[in-house]
Write a structure and sequence with these properties.
With 55 residues, this protein is mainly alpha-helical. The chain is 96% helix and 0% strand. It contains one helix and no strands. The protein has one helix at residues 2-54.
Length: 55
């Protein structure tokens, strides 16, 4: 019975670690993608404005 309890405890700890890693991964993903989104917006606006000027 003690081994069964330790297994359950270990799975809870593993789940907690997995949740923390997911949150950290999500935060890193947002921080990494934000500058790229801003650059895409800047270049997208510049390219669209140059296209409209050429035409």
């Amino acid at each position: 019975m003690s081994s069964d309890r330790s297994r359950r405890k270990g799975s809870h700890v593993f789940r907690a670690i997995a949740d923390v890693l997911r949150q950290i991964g999500g935060a890193i993903a947002t921080v990494v993608t934000l500058p790229f989104r801003a650059l895409a917006r800047l270049f997208g606006g510049a390219s669209s404005s140059t296209r409209s000027r050429r035409a």
